[in-house]
Amino acid sequence: MNGTEHFKEVIAAYLDQQAAEDAHFAERRDRIARPIGDVITYILNQVKASGCNGFSDDEIFGMALHCAEDEVEIGQPIPCQVVINRQIQLTEDEMAEAKRKAQEQLIREEMNRQRRSSTPKKPQAVAQEETTLSLFD
Asked: Structure pTM?
């Protein structure tokens, strides 16, 4: 799972939790019924417009809550990868795959290093003395 998918899950879980705790928000959210993709697009457009590179969780969650308003303009989708400051839990299969890829890369790098060091160096050409015949010698 990449960071962006995890980001979507975190935002969706937060919105679900808020809807469970606040009936007024749940009613607004159900009336507007924005897909999670639109909420993420809105957040990314707000982040881009701000010009800042880092945000607290509360700021991002506030943007997600604001997206349940009627007059909110979502904006155009922005292709990017979102990095969040929460630890992403990998499944056993994902961890095994990452370990296998790391081992393969290490083996390739070591083989390339050994090939470079075992390649015989070309002997430098022996400088030949240029003999010039002279009639006066």
From this structure: 0.57
